[in-house]
Write a structure and sequence with these properties.
DUF58, 359 residues, alpha/beta, 2 domains, 9 helices, elongated, Rossmann fold
């Protein structure tokens, strides 16, 4: 199939101003490859809108610093826990709670609960499928905005935030550091990372990236996986068939609290009526022209896209991870804030570890 050619543009008549450039249409959003970030650093996450929100942490944490998160295991700390009867020869007499002892006439000791710091690691998918966007922002930059928003929501004194960027041929690691300045530095590194060109091949996949995240970061904490969760060459729509990355997500959630951020573009789930349109996969050699003016064709494509997204949702739910979907045509800060407020009610049930595994 040959691609139609167009005559070269002609300039305006002498003495008349040049017309304003046309807005980029569907062709430029599909064929064009972004070269610069579509969101500036100072617009990633407004801190003022996030100060009253806090991401609920319900899984067990490990650490040595004095953070603001209560550990789930009794140990030395500053916050008091429940009182229990004194065990001679086992308990320190300095921990006796004399007020409880006087009321019960039985010696009691007061345990303390250790404070733990939170370590967050964000895995950002920057494969070619994330470079697409038709609403003024690419999925890649929307994913970075999600990382920024979650970073500001989860950071307190002593907490650390690190990142891993998954390219088709390698995994780039950004060390975990504490403080807002370190978080801004990590976001700047993500924004300035060279954009992966289309059809770049390599051994790295989302399943391999999640496995490497679980293998290299052994401390318990919060893990954020940001991706479109699309596997090249996977055309399965049956929700009962597991995607290749589901098992890796399930293993990651055994020891950690996992949040999956799915980024989508509006035109991936709502095909426009623009006539003949070239549809191509930036990660494979698939290309095909589709007549989007045909209402039946648009309906079939929308139904297939909806089934694909439903399969991703069900797979993430089976893996026992938190799931939030962000779209390039919506305000991601409001979507994340709405999710965080509802997440507090379901986090404990959603992230319940398998039977026999320590919380």
């Amino acid at each position: 199939m040959s691609v139609p050619s167009f005559p070269p543009p002609t300039g305006p008549p002498v003495g008349q101003p040049a017309p304003a450039p046309a807005a980029p249409g569907a062709l430029s959003s599909v064929v064009g490859v972004p070269t610069t970030p579509t969101i500036p650093l100072n617009k990633l996450a407004p801190e003022a809108a996030l100060r009253r929100l806090e991401l609920a942490i319900v899984r067990r944490l490990e650490g040595f610093l004095q953070g603001d998160h209560l550990g789930l295991l009794p140990g030395p700390g500053t916050d008091t826990n429940d009182a229990r009867p004194y065990q001679a020869g086992e308990d320190d007499v300095r921990k006796i709670d004399w007020a409880v002892t006087a009321r019960t006439t039985v010696p009691h000791v007061r345990d303390t609960m250790a404070d733990r710091e939170l370590e967050v690691w964000a895995l950002l998918d920057v494969t070619p499928s994330m470079n697409w966007g038709t609403e003024g922002v690419t999925k890649r930059d929307l994913g970075i905005a999600a990382v920024a928003t979650i970073g500001f929501l989860s950071q307190k004194m002593g907490d650390r935030f690190g990142g891993m960027m998954m390219r088709p041929n390698e995994m780039r690691r950004l060390p975990a550091r504490s403080g807002r300045s370190a978080l801004y530095g990590l976001l700047r590194r993500m924004l300035t990372e060279p954009i992966v060109p289309d059809h770049e091949v390599g051994p790295m996949s989302l399943a391999a990236g999640v496995e490497e995240l679980a293998r290299t970061q052994r401390r318990r904490g919060l893990r954020v996986v940001v991706s479109d969760f699309l596997t090249p060459g996977d055309h399965e729509l049956d929700p009962n068939v597991e995607p290749e990355w589901e098992r890796a997500m399930r293993r990651l959630s055994v020891r950690n609290q996992v949040l999956a951020v799915e980024v989508v573009d509006r035109r991936e789930i709502e095909f426009p009526d623009v006539g003949d349109m070239l549809i191509r996969d930036p990660e494979t050699d698939f290309e095909r022209y589709v007549d989007t003016a045909d209402a039946a064709a648009r309906q079939r494509m929308d139904a297939a896209s909806a089934a694909q997204r439903e399969r991703i949702r069900i797979a993430l739910r089976r893996a026992g991870v938190g799931h939030i979907q962000l779209r390039t045509d919506r305000d991601w800060v409001q979507d994340i804030a709405r999710f965080v407020l509802a997440y507090r009610r379901v986090a404990s049930m959603l992230h319940a570890p398998p039977q026999g595994v320590a919380r």
